[in-house]
Amino acid sequence: MKTRAFLTLSSVLASLALTIAPVLANNGVELKNRLDAAESRGSVSREALVQLRAEQTALEKQEADIRAKYDGLLPARKAVKLTKECKKLISKLDKIESKKSDNTAQNYGDARKESPTPQVQSGKKADIDRLLAIRRELVGDKSLSTNAKNVKVVVINGTVTLRGVVNSESEKVKVASAARKYADDSKVLDELEVNTR
């Protein structure tokens, strides 16, 4: 009787391990894909991304160590624990991405009287057309992060002022280049800042 109960328990545990392993693998793939997408969108700071990738690597190493200890197998209890940890990381990424970015502290130009703000945007047709052309250029560039696509563009009497925070020096150059396509170099005021977080 005990042997039969043991065999039944063994088969239940084996089937549980077989169903958990793919879930763990899928969570690992989802986490990797989500981190890659967050990096390409620029929706997570570099520091947070490095931390999340380090935690992902630690989970992968932990799984490899467990498999090495159990001859390539992953015990159900350990698989469940790893799956929970992987889901926690995915949840952590969701929380970081859902936080609204607040670059007000870095966007010091609002406090300066001489720097134009979107509230004083010119209503002249030529200025509005120039603003729309620059905005289309930025939004259409797939290589730019969300921050770069959302910089402030103010056009007054043909002079374009760019303000806000971008993720890298190369993005700063790309945004300024987009503005220079529609305005003279001397009429583009680049007040962009590179995110240092």
Keywords:
mainly alpha; 3-stranded mixed sheet; 3 strands; 197 residues; 2 domains; single chain; hypothetical protein tt1634
Q: What can be said about this structure in brief?
A:
With 197 residues, the chain is mostly helical.
List the SSEs and their pairings.
Elements: H1 2-41, H2 46-69, H3 76-98, H4 125-140, H5 146-149, E1 152-156, E2 159-166, H6 169-180, E3 188-194
Parallel strand pairs: 2-3
Antiparallel strand pairs: 1-2
Major beta sheet, strand line-up: 1-2-3
Percent of residues in beta strands? 5-15%
* Oligomeric state as shown: single chain
The class by helix and strand makeup works out as mainly alpha
For the CA atoms, what is the radius of gyration? 26 Å
**How many discrete domains?**
2
- Figure out the total of helices: 6
First CA to last CA: what distance?
Answer: 64 Å
Fraction of residues in helices? 55-70%
Number of strands: 3
Tell me about the biggest sheet? 3 strands, mixed
